[in-house]
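Appendix B, Record 12. Input sequence as logged:
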Amino acid sequence: MAHRRADSTELDLRRHLPRWAARMLGIPGSNSLGQVRLDEPLLAQVVDAVQRGLGYAPFDEQLRAASALHSGYAVEMDTGEGKTLAGAMAAAMLALEGRHVHVLSANDYLARRDAEWMSAMFDRLGQRVSWIQQSTSPEERRSAYRADVVYVSFSELGYDFLRDQHVEEMTDRVGPRFDVGIVDEADAVMIDEGMTPLVLAGSDEAAVESLVDATALIAPLQQDVHFEVDADRATVSLTDAGIDLIENRAGGVNLFDAEHIGLLTRVNLALHARELVQRDVDYLVADDGIRLINPARGRVAQLQRWPDGLQAAVEAKEALAVTPPGIILDQITVQDLLRRYQLLAGMSGTILAVADELQEFYNLPSGRIGRHRPNRRLDLPRRVYATGPDKHAAITDEIARRHAAGQPVLIGTQSVSESEALAAQLPAALGVRVLNARNDAEEAMIIARAGEYGAVTISTQMSGRGTDIRLGGADEHDRERVVACGGLAVIGTTPYPSTRLDLQLRGRAGRQGDPGTTLSFAAFDDELVQTNATEGMRRRMARGRVEEKARERLVRQAQTIAESVRLDRHRSTWQYTRALSRQRAKVLRVRDEALAEPNRTRRLVTLFCLDEQWQGHLARLAEIRDGIHLRRLAGQNPVDEFHRIALREFASFFTSVDTAVRERLQRVGDGSDPLAELGLRRPSATWTYMLRDDPLGDAAGRAAAEIHRRIRGVWDRA
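Logged structural output:
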């Protein structure tokens, strides 16, 4: 299918959909739909099932979206325009053609909610629908994956794929089939989370080590004396004075002697945890443990943790029990997981902004479906202030003014700490409700009440919430009074690193033709502006007076730089993962052959040796990645060098496996447990988690800082 560069125009289905779909929809010469004719049996069956099962008729726009998804498009539909139904109809159409469909959601809650919500439609078509959650047992997963349509979060799907590659019996697999994937919140999942590795780890009690001593060692260190933090707050490094102090406190050791390199590593991790990882921004402390916060959604990331060293360092920093480290058994990026599908489609309220990236990384064309009703929302210009205190005073005044008029107000922030600080500043009489990672269990109730008369709701991120805000409350009992007040007012307190997130927050107002107002604030000392400002921008901001339009341009420029950095980082990380992805595919093919081996002793020994060798290979490549950036100092391309080394390391992989298998089979008897007889032990337990942001470890942080400096330099020269 030819790619058409996306712009603000609507998806022209006459050019991109099958002839039967365009003919059936009766598309006239303009982008708007004429009278829909249900003379095409496939879609007609689905529409009939919607009407009979769910009790309402789909909008023409939902039919267009369903047809586009059916044809393998990423579809942009505004908030409240019915993406859930459009995705379900597309899934049903594909299932009627004999395809096996996964509808991939951002979290477990949405997977179950949407499957139950749409089940009556699927029942009418004689199709079985299922859902999978973190608590779903292996037996239930195996059954669920046999359904015609499966609703599942992308992370649970990935973990099932990884676990299936490490079973010892074919019958232990749960068996997800990668035929058709329809991705909800596609830009967040496919782009923002695309390079996030899903990890299968095994416990290794023998490797337990504490970072408590290292945390104590760094206690007296002072910034700019003993260590330095770069301008991007991506790395922290010891100064000569810091090295001397640590060596003295550790008993006069030389940190760079081979025997003390481990201590140096732990000191650096402890310092990173103390200076760069922030409580109530990056994580919460709850239930005597660390709970990471997903920065794209403001929620606790239930299955997410940092690489073991950093996780343990943060736990030591908070004086918590340190989690035993483990060994990575396997991992796969979200992008590699999704590219396994034969047909991929997606939907979101902000697709066009990443249309070129979806084409580049997934070969996925994009388009927009217009609103069912005209947009009545008023989007006011952003207000930019010189300082944070000036901005916060203006925000509280704006909230109080709109609340006094009875208008419901939704305030979007970027962190738990910001949400709680703002709530504390507002008068108690406003009855502020806070939605953040601390109380996400009450999410649906809080959002349902956000459209009530005079309501004031503060939310840490609104993307991926999956719930519309109805004027007048969940049942719209007070709708007319809220409409008379101007509908929902949405206020953004700080510009996001991506304009897509600004748009997603804005989209909560003006649902399906409702009135509404949006307004955003920024300050020159906001983290986004300070982190991404070029030297020229800093000089302009330092002037006593900056015109209003110039202030807005400076903030927009900082956002553009942040988006450029993210895209460059995505491309860089994607390049690093190509060699590993190809090697994994070869190993999995051989493992499948070994799994089919009928003689049991040979099968178990071969599988153990394959897995053992793969884990060692992953560990070696991780070490190589961490220092590969230094090749640039020698005039070499780090990506090219990494690929060359990865190929060299893999060249003897299967030879080493064969040697280990032969040697071990010669020593094994006829016992019922050949691995135990050989003194071999698989990990005593396994768990899954998501690495955050830096799949290449510290090297990625350094590479990102370098990219950042280069992009800022380009902007300055421009």
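The CA atoms of residues 228 and 699 lie 17 Å apart.
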